[in-house]
Write a structure and sequence with these properties.
The protein is of the alpha+beta class and 380 residues long. It is built from ten helices and 13 strands. A seven-stranded antiparallel β-sheet has the order 5-4-1-2-3-7-6. Strands 8-9-10-13-12-11 form a six-stranded antiparallel barrel.
């Protein structure tokens, strides 16, 4: 016979000679386990049957309740006063019209996602958006707006590359090139020194140092080449910048010529392919007052013709040059520079120009009167 536990083969006996298993007790234990498994299976089947019956009862109740609600609601809708539809946004004429078939009505009213809505056509904000443009240069983006039918005003820093930044970049690139040359010479000296040394732990250590320095230098040289290429490109583009004007309808245009202010952060661009929309100055005798509602329009982070709102906080004078600015808490983000600051009637009050770093709700605009004074000979 064979032991069911350790598979030891022996002559018939009451227990296994190898593991000591008593065959009678093992058989009784096995039989009890089979009986318990059968009882468990029967209990599970009974519970499953009871759960299924419960689900069927609940389903029947829901079907009955739903049917009752449908017919009750449908009947109430048929006798409802027609003016309820007017409260939902329909006019009396639309209510009295013959309703389309159910399938057509469903197709007309179904919407899968929210739809972006532009400001109402003809409102001051919408008119201002049409007169606002996005300006793209090789070094960044900004905004501007038509001040008459043919001229766009913007910030000078939008269309003029910062020569200080260019000088700093040029200095950094040249300094890094010298450091690379020095490092290459140093590695060559270490290599010659190593060749003269006898085999020793010191020589092995120096060999590892040279290898690591060469590995790091390879990475630095790769980055240096990229910086040199970028510098060369910026120098070419700064000398002959390609400035693109993108109108509200999405069309792109190249400017005719450009005028830059010597005293202010202002520039005037000429563009003659335009529908004629431009922002107007406020009438005489209508000065802006603290607390008046204002709007900014611009292209922050590539979001063209974004509108933000706030209030006029007051006039501020800069200590360094006594220039006067309009302060507002309307959001002026990177890309808004050169865009218009308008009042709630749509009159342009200023040219958005800067914010105070590490603050929120403190932005500044150059007064529109300054623009006309600075470019009076051209704008007249």
């Amino acid at each position: 016979m064979q032991c069911p536990k350790c598979n030891h083969i022996q002559a018939e006996a009451p227990e296994c000679h190898k593991c000591g298993l008593i065959f009678a007790k093992y058989e009784a234990y096995t039989q009890r386990q089979q009986e318990l498994a059968e009882k468990k299976a029967q209990t599970g089947a009974a519970r499953k049957s009871g759960t299924l019956k419960f689900i069927q009862i609940i389903s029947l109740v829901l079907v009955v309740a739903g049917t009752t609600y449908y017919f009750t609601k449908h009947k109430a809708t048929e006798v409802q006063n027609p003016t309820a539809a007017i409260e939902m946004g329909e006019t009396k004429e639309e209510v009295n019209k013959e309703k389309p078939d159910s399938q057509e009505a469903s197709a007309q009213t179904k919407t899968d996602a929210p739809v972006a809505v532009s400001p109402v056509a003809g409102t001051p904000v919408e008119r201002a958006r049409k007169a606002t443009v996005s300006i793209e240069t090789p070094w960044g983006t900004g905004s501007g707006f038509f001040i008459n039918k043919n001229y766009i005003v913007t910030n000078k820093h939008v269309v003029e590359f910062n020569t200080k930044d260019l000088d700093e970049m040029r200095h950094r690139v040249r300094t890094n090139r010298k450091l690379i040359d020095f490092e290459q010479q140093k590695i060559e000296e270490l290599r010659l020194q190593m060749e003269e040394m006898p085999d020793s732990p010191t020589k092995s250590q120096l060999q590892i140092i040279i290898k690591e320095r060469e590995k790091y230098l390879t990475k630095v040289i790769k980055d240096q080449r990229l910086q040199e290429e970028r510098l060369a490109k910026l120098e070419r583009e700064a000398a002959n910048p390609e400035i693109t004007i993108i109108l509200a309808d999405g069309t792109s245009h190249t400017i005719g010529y450009m005028l830059k202010s010597e005293a202010y952060d202002l520039a005037l661009l000429s563009l003659f392919s335009h529908d004629g929309s431009f922002l107007r100055r406020p009438p005489e005798g209508r000065p802006i007052k603290e607390g008046d509602k204002v709007f900014t329009i611009g292209s922050p982070v590539g979001l063209r013709h974004t509108v933000t709102s706030g209030v006029f906080s007051g006039f501020r004078q800069r200590d360094t040059d006594s220039q006067v600015f309009l302060q507002t808490d309307a959001a002026i983000n990177p890309g808004n520079s050169g865009g218009p600051l308008i009042d709630e009637n749509g009159f342009v009050r200023g040219v958005n120009t800067m914010i105070v770093r590490n603050t929120e709700g403190i932005g500044f605009a150059i007064p529109i009167d300054t623009v006309f004074e600075e470019f009076s000979s051209t704008l007249e």
